[in-house]
Design goal:
The chain is mainly alpha-helical and 117 residues long. The protein folds into two domains: 3-84; 85-117, no CATH class. Helix content is 65%, strand content 0%. The protein has six helices and no strands. The protein has helices at residues 3-28, 33-43, 50-55, 63-81, 96-101, 109-116. It binds zinc ion. Residues 87, 89-90, 92, 107-108, 110-111 line the site of zinc ion (ZN).
């Protein structure tokens, strides 16, 4: 694994940590009882199972963070599988510039353009 990619792994790990802390704080301070209950449940749930627990419920206000956490975790999972930074469509390497903009990027520039049309 090239060193440059390892930097993205650190970034993704930090982002996942931050998102989890934010979600926990948001839920703990929620005015809705059921959301505070979820916060308690999350505290007793291993990190990797958070998405499962959160996705079952719909939190319009927190949805963006849950979706982002899901993407970040998927990218971290790709590190484990040794396929991080590889385009999901053509299997070319995704440019570092693109990963720099968003380390959860799944497509190289030509493929991203194609799927945007
Ligand atoms: Zn591609």
């Amino acid at each position: 694994m090239p060193h440059s990619l390892m930097l993205f792994k650190n970034r993704l790990t930090e982002e996942a940590k931050r998102l989890r802390a934010e979600l926990l704080q948001d839920l703990s301070q929620s005015e809705h009882f059921f959301e505070r209950e979820i916060a308690l449940k999350l505290k007793a749930t291993p990190d990797i199972n958070w998405i499962e627990l959160l996705q079952d419920k719909i939190y319009p206000t927190l949805n963006k963070k849950v979706i982002r956490l899901n993407k970040v975790e998927a990218a971290l999972c790709q590190f484990e599988q040794g396929v991080y930074g590889i385009c999901a469509d053509c299997e070319d390497a995704i440019s570092l510039l693109k990963l720099e903009q968003d380390p959860t990027e799944q497509r190289c520039l030509p493929c991203a353009d194609k799927s945007a049309v």
